[in-house]
User: Fold these one by one.
Assistant:
Number 1:
Amino acid sequence: MVESETLGETLQRRGFSRRSLLKFAIAMTSSLALPPSVAPLMAANLARARRRSVIWLSFQECTGCLETLLRSSSPTIDALIFDFISLDYQEALMAAAGTAAERTLREAVAANKGEYLLAIDGSIPTKDGGVYSLTGGRSNHDMLMEFAADAKAVLAIGTCAAYGGIPKAFPNPTGAVGVEDLVTDKPIVNIPGCPPVPEVLSGVLVHFISFGKLPDLDDRKRPLAYFGTTIHDQCYRRPFYDQGKFAKSFDDEGARQGWCLFELGCKGPITHNACASLKWNGGTSFPIESGHGCIGCSEPDFWDKGSFYTSLAGGSATGWRNAGLAAAVGIASGAAAALSSKLRAEPAKPRPENKP
Amino acid sequence: MTDLASLADDGLVDALLMEVAAMLGRLVDKGETASIDLRGLPLSFSCIANLEQRLGRGEILVQLDAAGRSELRETAFPGVWWTQHCDEAGRVIAMLIEVNTIPDILRADPIDMAASLRRLAGVTHHAAFRQASHA
């Protein structure tokens, strides 16, 4: 793509019609829970927009977040949007290494000072001066603080970057923390998940490029459109929960009938994410549809909340004695769902610090 | 599905049809267009099928091939369209009820038309050159 081109010009040069862009905007407004009437405005803004610099730093992580984002089943128009972002620094993807890579990073920051988006995956170790994760001899902590200072906003991608994730799990030997524990003076968007749903990152980027601001966020700095409801509230097995029909083991008759996995440890009632609506592998399915309960990977401290196979009521598929507690959790989650619906209907204004 | 769930589905479909009627009224009276994002609502597959059946099929079916297939179908109620957009992998990325004389996406964009005029000028120029060289 020619650096000075607008997205509209790029599309035209590649033989894409404006209908393609409008169609993409229709899909994105739906994904972002915006009214369909906003789509033409989004398409027009995208057509006028120019390339936005993204600097991506990987800290204490497993590269699973990057893997899932690269393997998202993106339609061509979606790929164009990612083309439209100038990924100026990403250690795993870039050809440059060593001092050449460091020079690239400095140049990208200098050229886009105050305008680039800083994407972080992985937690930040803070114990013993942060020696547990270094890049070019510099601690993750020092790099984060330096490059966040000149960023327009920081995207914390994955549960590790958002809340510390698995590195933070007890006993947290490296003193791992999330981005928001250290960066307090910049707009932050948390996109948690282990790994995160790739379409959520697309949605955040498109919203930022087309409207020049971050989408509305919840109290944990997550995009409200994707994290406004629980997995439980969107789950196709929810009617079985309401009817008190629970699988007792992974191979019993209830499991074969597709009954609720609550008693097998499903964390859907307390987990906010978009898996049940956007699904995985090109919309094929999500864990519950494949017969396993949600493990709550997009929530803080999910690794320390007990066994994945212990129900939220405290049992381990021990039969109907948990039904009373299940009902209590159901009532509570119902109330939370009602509140959540209200929040979706009347999205909370983003806090001032979340406006770039 | 239990009778209770069916009853809830019917209620949702009735509510949506009333909303569509109100939207169509505004289109007739004020020329105001509107649409409903069906994927943004907690509708079951059976509920969507029920809604689609009750809206019925009209005279127009348009297939659009732009970054994947789209199908735009007029319902039995002129001015009310059932629209489904898919990506290139065939995955549904948007499903809408549009209340409009014709869905906006079908109209040719001025920028696309300007580009096609330039291309067409090139084609006609070549045709004129060919005719001149044969003469």
Number 2:
Amino acid sequence: MRPGGGGGLADDAGCPILHVDMDAFFASVELIDRPELHGLPVIIGAAGARGVVLSATYEARRFGVHSAMPMTRARRLCPQAVVIPPSHGKYGEISKGVMEIFHTITPEVEPLSVDEAFLDVSGARRRLGPPAGIAAMIREQVAERFGITCSVGVASTKFVAKLASRECKPDGLLVVAADRVAEFLHPLPVAALWGVGERTEQALTRLGIRTVGDLAQVPVTTLRREFGVAGAHLHALSWGRDERRVVPHTPDKSIGNEETFAQDVDDPVVIERELLRLSERVAARLRAAGLVGRTISVKLRRSDFSTITRARTLREATDVAKEIHATACELYRAAGLQRIRLRLVGVRMENLGPAGTATRQLGLGDRETGWREAEQAMDKAIQRFGPDAVRPASLVRPPFGPMDL
Amino acid sequence: MMFRVDRDVLAEAVAWTARSLPARPSVPVLAGMRLEVTEDHQLKLSGFDYEVSAEVTLDLQTGEPGVVLVSGKLLAEITRALPAQPVDLVVEGAKAVVTCGSARFTLLTMPVEDYPSLPAMPPAAGRVGSDVFAAAVAQVATAAGKDDTLPMLTGVRMEIEGDTVTLAATDRYRLAVRELKWQPDQPDFQAIAMIPGRTLADTAKSLITGAEVEIALSSVGGTGEGMIGFSSSGRRTTTRLLDPEFPKYRSLLPTEFSAYADISTSAFVEAVKRVALVAERNTPVRLAFRGTEVVLEAGSGDEAQAVEVLPVEFQGDDINIAFNHQFLLEGLGAIDSDLARLNFTTSTKPAILTGGKPVDETAIADYRYLIMPIRLSS
């Protein structure tokens, strides 16, 4: 039996933290329009040679398929699976709707990604009842409005709530009572703890520590000697102590886009063109969010996965793709990776601030209206006529590739 | 080789020559200063880094002809520190011995045969008063770009049309233009040269010891490397010219304005410095001109703010305009007048700063400092 299991029956008095995680989110969303695929293994992911699995139904997961796995491997593991290429837009819409449900319960919502969030329901008790009841209500509302399922972990801390939702997946609800946290945690493998990656897990295994319970028995001084500050942190987690609060809506610290090439590229012309495409996207996102940024960074990943990033801070904040691209190209050229095969490039804008306070030093001979105005006009055209309406000439693809002719 | 020379004369000559020596020489000998005693009892001190050459000629009382190359930086430090007595330099084998009073220094010499020969002085073109020239260059060089990745903007453009020299420099955000008279050797002389800004400013400042500066120009507009030379009272220096490419600045200088303001330069400078205390680098000082006053403001609502009001003599339509405070202060420092005049058209068009009230409202000032505004977001 699960300790503290049984959904609403457990003592949820000291458990105001909810972790809500959509079950196989992208796959579930696709299945809304394809009900005939229910109960079948379905994989969501781009079918190309370099594609990775975005999501898979539980029927497919039974074959060992999981997200972020290369598509080629997934298809080998589960050849009978139906493969659906990801459709943009749909996920964001439903994610927004789900987040809206959360916000009707409490303003204390901390989204982690499109398909999961922490909620602190301390303030909602008087209005909506105990946390376990609220969790059940969320699950009901999500299923009713969108026809997809989610799992909810209810606990006294964020980290235990997250583990609880994972334990009860799919379509589950698990309350870990405050006085039974140790009982819940200790049988779990150490890798379940936040912050324990492959390296730490190996180091712990060398010390004979396999479960969270083993870890909890190790004196904190020993852990500190082995892992430094992280050791003390591990000790706290092994006893379910996690000081982090639910932080509603963290404002964007940076806005970035990156692209993995279908095949590694060493042609600087192609790379700079890709940097233009990414700069256009980053700039459009900045303008849509009403932000400007001063620090531009580029990320360059070689074919052996070694990655470098280079950043430069501009004289003045900008949201103009032309300027972002010019700086990104300079950073790329200065990195000395021309003629080196790259697997991925990325462009990111940091040091963000509201566009309203931005000023612009005019230059001699500048035109009254510049690229900024041109790009704002592009935004409007794209809003009206779709993403392909306007783009830089170098990014226009011929309607047919040479192979089609 | 040996010579004896007065300490002050030597120290000044060595210091002047050492100015242009490279801090990080591409080859070791370029860190050297060449000292030569000629048959006709002259001492020539020279330095060269392939871009800039400098040479001073001194008359000697006693000396034995010969050449030696020693570390220029070290020699400059030594001569500066010597007591006020005659200085003797004697070459003994591979060493140069400097004695002055009871002080004695032994310096290693460098291989003089490896030292490049200095470029010949280009043909002389004319003369200009050294003080006028130094002041004009300083006024213009302040607007030259400091960013070496844009070499075109680091230069000062010199245009010569008969007896008029026009100096201009811009870093894209401001443009300084100065006209001055000179005496060309040929009355119809014409030339255009782009001179590295920092070198020109240093050179002009260092040549005010003589009354006049002679300007020499070579192969301007030709295929060979252009060069400009300046000489004055025993000092001569040459500089390689930059690519003559430069923005067509004359069309960028507005000549008609919708308003102007006359402000006491010193009061304006102090007020800008005060409000700028709350402005970060590259952020604006905002100026609102209304009737008989200007309101200066800096800072933003999220941070500290400053405001100050100054009386002005204002003609024209009210205007709100914002400038980089550093650019404004540098312009006010360059106009060399108690009264600053700012001419405007609109808040997004260049403003022109000039010094003093013009005698005639239609006359164009000798010195104009154009400054581009900062556009505030609406």
